[in-house]
Amino acid sequence: MIHKKIKLLIAFSLFCGSINKIVAQQVLDSISLDVLVAPNSPAFNLLGISPTLIDKPSTPTDFAFSVANASNNFSQLPKNYAIEILPVPLLFSKSKAAKDLYGKGFANTFAQTFSISSAFTTNDTISINVPGYIKTRTGIGFKVSLLRGEIDTTFEEYKTSLIEVRKKLNDLHAANIKELEKVRKTDLVYLLLQEKEQLINTERIRIANDTSIKLEEKTKMFAQQDSLIDALKKSREDRLEELKVNQIAKEKNVLETAAVLKTQIEAIKFRRYGPMLDMAGAVAIGYRNDDFQNSIVQQYAFWLNGGYSIKQGFDFLALARYNNNVKAIVDSTGKYSNQTSFDIGGKIEFVSKDKKFSLAGEAIARFVTDTSIYRYTFNTSYQVKKNQAITLSVGKNFGSTKAVPGGNLIATLNYIIAFGSNRKIYE
């Protein structure tokens, strides 16, 4: 008898657990944010193949991949690639909560925005007949936000509503579990099945203790009782299933409301407004004769870029950068020395109302010793899908103001796709 009660208790516990599992699967624990703002990795930036040198500080995803095709009428297969990762959220799931995206404090900002990037480029115009030629280069860079701005209030409003729905759902689920326990104790059908099983168990004990009944007869009687117990157990399970369906049906409306809110949040283009500032740095490595062991550091740079973004669709951005070209100058005695330069620039960007299309113009002055050269581009970007964008840039690169072999035309098409934008919505 006690053994059967234990089995019944275990069955009911498993049943309650199954409800928890079903509801847990249906409860909306995370959202996939649309955060891409067509960024360029610092590694791409230093190699001089990024569509734009002045980037708007953005909310990075766990992993991003971009490919660029520079000039040649876009007739070549792309030879420029870059990847960018966000190491902290990628490696530590506890840093993937939605609240961390707008949390304050240096530690949180660093964890959510510190990214590492690597880029690769190949220049087929370099002659391989020249000793020590360098046609393949690698860039390695980092970026971190110092000022993040404020998030779109629409996101926060929906998020608050969804948390309230989740709390209501949890409260309703807890109430349903209690109600189910109450129903189990008062449901006539369930109690009748339970009583029949108890009677069979009582009879089973009597038969086992009756010495006048032969062993063969006892075995037969136990087999019949086992069949009856199995049938009663199946009936109890069917009845519990009916009760379960009735209880879950009460939660359906709340789940549907949560699903609608989640869809609305994921449709929002996650943007930041107000003052923003990023710090970045990168180093460029060249491979002489395409030999990895014969690599040299060609250039390194550190820069700040940021500005102010307004909700009306305009961004006003600026850049300040220090560059150092390693052993770029040779004097009359054959001695090499580094060449330093400073970049100062500005950018105005217009973003469409649906946040999918942007049009921008940027101009940068580079100051080298006693002279200056300029770069200016017009950029347009379009978000083709969620966290996927194409950027086109046309303009003039740094170089001589006169016509020179090779020219200074910029014509770059860049495609970027970002992964890992899921964030836990609940605290």
Task: Give a description of the structure.
The chain has eight helices and 15 strands. It is an alpha+beta fold and 427 residues long. Helix 1 runs parallel beside helix 7 (215-249) and helix 5 packs antiparallel against helix 8 (252-267). The radius of gyration is 34 Å and the shape is elongated.
**Gap between N and C termini:** 46 Å
Alpha plus pi helix count: 8
Overall pLDDT level: 76
The low-pLDDT segments are 1-27, 401-406
Q: Which overall shape is indicated by the principal axes computed on the Cα atoms?
A: elongated
* Radius of gyration computed on alpha carbons: 34 Å
Which helices and strands appear, and what pairs or packs with what?
Blueprint: H1 2-26, E1 30-32, H2 42-47, E2 63-70, E3 80-85, H3 87-91, H4 106-113, E4 115-122, E5 134-147, E6 150-151, H5 153-186, H6 188-209, H7 215-249, H8 252-267, E7 272-288, E8 295-309, E9 314-330, E10 336-351, E11 357-368, E12 371-385, E13 388-396, E14 409-419, E15 422-424
Antiparallel strand pairs: 1-15, 2-3, 2-14, 3-4, 4-5, 5-7, 6-7, 7-8, 8-9, 9-10, 10-11, 11-12, 12-13, 13-14
Name some characteristics of this structure:
twelve-stranded antiparallel barrel, two-stranded antiparallel sheet, alpha+beta, 8 helices, disordered N terminus
Write a brief structural summary.
This protein is an alpha+beta fold.
